[in-house]
Amino acid sequence: MNINDGRRDLERAGWVADVTVELGGRPDLREVRATMVKALLPDAQPNDRFGAVLLVADELVGNAYRHATTPQSLRVGRASSTVLIEVSDGDPIAGAVQIRTLKYGLRLVGQLSLDWGVRTDSLGKVVWALVPLDIYPAEP
């Protein structure tokens, strides 16, 4: 896990979010997943496998709901072989995420992601994960 880094490389590569879901009203995780699938995988079939992306997004959004006082947004961007998931909240304390890395959920994020980390800004913090699609491909 990296604190306050990793995102710079993605920004230099011209990464753009494909979908943003506002989390302020704490929408149900099923609604969040459905929005992600519609935006990122418009041709997806019910049997397609993109479970790693959904599991990581669920964990990061669920953690924001449980541990942050002000969840803000989920941003998800897709490149040809990776998906970048970012969850922002109004809590600027990145160290709290480090403490929770021994818990099962963030351990799962680490195992399913190429990399993940936390960065802070003037609005709070962003927990991000870069999930490979080529290891967990959708079936044709």
Structure description:
- The protein has helices at residues 7-12, 29-40, 51-67, 95-99, 104-112, and strands at residues 2-3, 19-22, 71-78, 82-89, 115-121, 124-132.
- With 140 residues, the chain is α+β, with helices and mostly antiparallel strands.
- The chain has a six-stranded mixed beta sheet with strand order 1-5-6-4-3-2.
- β3 (71-78) and β4 form a beta hairpin.
- α3 runs antiparallel to α5.
- It is globular, with a radius of gyration of 14 Å.
- Mean pLDDT is 78; it is low at 1-9.
Descriptors for this entry?
140 residues, alpha+beta, six-stranded mixed sheet, 5 helices, 27% strand
Helix content: 25-40%
Largest beta-sheet details: 6 strands, mixed
**Cα shape:** globular
Instruction: Tally the helices.
Output: 5
The radius of gyration is 14 Å
What are the segments in which pLDDT stays under 50 over at least 5 consecutive residues? 1-9
Calculate the mean pLDDT score and round it.
Answer: 78
Secondary-structure class: alpha+beta
% residues in beta strands: 25-35%
What is the CA-CA span between the terminal residues? 33 Å
Encode the helix/strand succession as letters: EHEHHEEHHEE
Strand order of the largest sheet: 1-5-6-4-3-2
Extended strand count? 6
Topology:
Layout: E1 2-3, H1 7-12, E2 19-22, H2 29-40, H3 51-67, E3 71-78, E4 82-89, H4 95-99, H5 104-112, E5 115-121, E6 124-132
Parallel strand pairs: 1-5
Antiparallel strand pairs: 2-3, 3-4, 4-6, 5-6
